[in-house]
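Session log. Operator J.P. requested a structure for one protein chain; no other inputs attached. Running the standard single-chain path with token output.
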Amino acid sequence: MTYDPLPTDDTAAAEPSARPAPFPDAPRGQKGYDKRAVEVFLARARAAFEAPGDDPPITSATVRDATFPLVKRGYAVAAVDAALGRIEDAFANREREEGIARAGVAGWVEGARATAQEVLDRLARPDGRRFARARGMRYGYRIDEVDLVSRKLIGYFERGEPVTVDQVRQAAFRMQRRGYREEQVDALLDAVVEVMLAVR
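Structure written below.
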């Protein structure tokens, strides 16, 4: 079944019993995304895409960073995440078109190349030293798992080895004491997604 990730204003205004669910419910026994939070965000994203002008504006990064509370009887996480990926793609495509209109194709490509080089410089650091460690006894991402993903991304940037945007979006790591700081790893993965969307 196909689910419309961005309900129209008419369906959003309908009574809950009369409005078709935009996503399936989470499987029995599993928590899902809070339905109201998802629907409010997606309605705002639809409005911003159709009539840009929000302050602050919604961008592909806004969609990528969206988070929702996990609750009982919420929407299935995988279905919502897949829709968010498609919505992020739509915003990224428009941003690329706007960027090319401002700077020209050469300028847009040069900007993406510069970002890619910054990312590659970070990825090229030795295993165990790519990111700052969590302080004290705090937990961070497992170093060996992040380093493994980093090596795969080096292969993508340097040798054109296959890595998809969804694989980067879905990258997840277990935790360990004094592991890599989450915010640094997450920021780099966001930059990788931005580059991949910019040049595809």
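Operator note: The longest strand covers residues 139-141.
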